[in-house]
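Table 4 source record.
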Amino acid sequence: MRQPSVPARRVAAVSVSLVVAAGAVACGPKDSGAQGAGGDSKPRKGGVLSVLNAQPQQDFDPARLYTSGGGNIPSLVFRTLTTRHRANGAAGAKVVPDLATDTGRPNKDATVWTYTLKKGLKFEDGTPITSADVKYGVERSFAPELSGGAPYLRDWLTGAADYQGPYKDKKGLSAIETPDSRTLVFHLNKPEGEFPLLATQTQFTPVPKSKDTGTKYENHPVSSGPYKVIRNENDGERLLLERNPAWSAATDSERKAYPDRIDVRSGLDSSVINQRLSASQGADAAAVTTDTNLGPAELAKTTSDSQLAARVGTGHFGYTNYLAFNPKIKPFDDVKVRQAISYAVDRSSVVNAAGGSALAEPATTFLPNQKSFGYTPYDLFPAGASGAPAKARELLKEAGYAHGLTITLTHSNSKDFETSPEIATAVQDALKKAGITVRLQGLEDNDYKDKIHSVKTEPGLFLAHWGADWPSGGPFLAPIFDGRQIVKDGANFNTGLLNDPSVNSEIDAINKLTDLDAAAKRWGALDEKIGAQALTVPLFHPVYKRLYGKDVKNIVISDWTGVLDVSQVAVK
């Protein structure tokens, strides 16, 4: 699970320029769909696509990448057992086969998953991709020297907790069987109905053992996708990709691979990126960004220009910004105080502080408002658009604070909209109307993260955020509310320190379901049940607004990533 950061990792703490919330997808005033921009209705192969990003594509090794995120760049080179469907909006939140013939075949209790590889799969050098290559790719992701990837496999695979990777343990993982060159069987230590979603992550990328160069593999990873790495400068500051001639569209229905080359330039200032995309001159006419949002002022400028407005892609990603309570600290140990703050919050002012309604949507549920997460509308402490201070005062009086109280709100001093001083000030102003004096404690970003993610130092009230590793309620609710995931001597994300047996058992029960639609409904019901304990105050879901060059075509933005999918883009 993660709080999307820069670069995307666990504790992904991304600024609004990197994240997004839920809903429909649009591309400027009209949905570009398969038509895209540029006037020509049919995308064609050829040309060079430029990607202008603020954050480097660091650690370009499938073992070290947290997901297939990074603005979709890794998925151009690394194919996995399953992948996300490359479609606009909600349709893009579905998991589909990639290297495998299907999304996986579970046994009765979802503790064993079997996959069969497609025929005709090849690496960039023309050698066949086998089940042993996929197994080895998974195994090397356990190596300490290749740390950085998602932690699920260590938790889910039988006997994998202490495995140190193939460089130290030549026996390999017994939890993964390869009975033949096309079959993989994964043995799990508990039921996991969402294993097909996990199998989209880059740890499931095949790696030929004979070509593994350890920590240097990122310089020239062996491609299984439509593009191969030609150059990797300064650990992802510039990444140059060109066609992989061994890749076959016959085995890959998801990636279109229109451009001949893709040139990824990173480490750029966000304002420079938006200026270049706005001007759309020379090579920048065929450029996109996968990590740089338009700010409020920039968005106002583009909105007033019809030609620019037609080149703004809008995306939504499963992400929630919220107030977090530590109920072990007074006065937040009293549920009435937590409820009072929930009623007092003015979401309109918070949304304005986050950049306005175009860049943030008010939230009253912890789960993002997308079907795939199991979104169930509820508002247990209805504050309206501008807060309900009278109701808050009433609850404070019942809690013994008839004359109000003074509390501290911890936040980051970084420029991120999510945890910024502006958001904190909006909360401070709203609570003042209810008789609550809020002292603001602004910390440098690293100090802030260290403080809020330690059980020993977690403050009573702080700004927090959480993003999805895949579009489901599981990676949203379990890390934050499963009592068994409380980490006492490390990075802890269960901010409310909740350890409710009924919640824990329901999480286990839902994890057994392989029907993801049925599971989603139960995640939604669990969200509402937990919400009644007022351990968080959902504030808003951020929204991506991103420019693309005038010669860019075939814009696809799914609810899985919320960003323009470079595997679909064509250039003039």
